[in-house]
Amino acid sequence: MPWIQLTVSSDEAHARQLGDVLMANGAQAVTYRDGKDAPIFEPGPGEVQLWDHTLVTGLFDAELNTSAMVKRLEQVKYLGKGFQYKTDQLEDKDWEREWMDNFKPIQFASNLWVVPSWHQAPDPDAANILLDPGMAFGTGTHPTTALCLEWLARQDLQGKTVVDFGCGSGILGIAALKLGAARCVGIDIDRQALIATKENAQRNDVAERFEVYLPSEQPSLAADIVVANVLAGPLQELAPVILGYVGKAGLLCMSGVLSRQADDVMNAYRPAVQFAEVEQRDDWIMLNGQRVSG
């Protein structure tokens, strides 16, 4: 089926409203893009942050009457006549196949792979995490997740208890269990993340060893290893909570931190944690260390 994209320039204050207007007028999907290459880092809890200059794109059936749509949009108060827009025709493709073809098995260490469900595992004897790509909770393609996976692959996890704080898809906890950990406890504020974690744990045959909890339900335990791939703000604010999971001489691995935020995050955990050398990929870093006090 052929499609038309209608892209409208908006300011941050009205971008979401404009997206709703496009959906109300028949858009099958709406996306938001930065119009000026101005990056956004770490929105606050519950905040949906967009760019000062945002490009809002609606995907429509190719039979869309573009002129009529523009006239309707001109009636929107914050747009008015003469608003900036562009249209693009999209080639009719098998978009599901196109999407799937872009994702291949990814190797994170000699013994650790993430494998989409439509591929065979390249190394059947490795720790293979069966996980399909998705936008919501992470599948290893982002540098922060990759750094944590590579770190886990270097650890002796045999028989260990692991806490996956902010578990998302459960990828880090599943990796730990596949690499020999005896038990993993996943914690996340999002119930949908907990559902995704349980489903992924079942797919990977580790569900019996992977428990999940909301923060209000989280158990007390002293883990051998704690991994937390969230953001710098929560890592600092929740330092007492996260430290509470790190057992005596336990290991802590944290990511979701920009290089300029490293000192602030580490200071929130000192002197209880002695940190190793910072590891960096692109603008993101991974912090890891061992509990030495407290």
UniProtKB/TrEMBL annotation:
Keywords linked to the UniProt accession: Cytoplasm, Methyltransferase, Ribonucleoprotein, Ribosomal protein, S-adenosyl-L-methionine, Transferase
GO-annotated cellular components: cytosol; ribosome
Class of this enzyme: transferase
Pfam families on file: PrmA
Main location: cytoplasm
Enzymatic reactions: L-lysyl-[protein] + 3 S-adenosyl-L-methionine = N(6),N(6),N(6)-trimethyl-L-lysyl-[protein] + 3 S-adenosyl-L-homocysteine + 3 H(+)
Role description: Methylates ribosomal protein L11.
Protein name, entry field: Ribosomal protein L11 methyltransferase
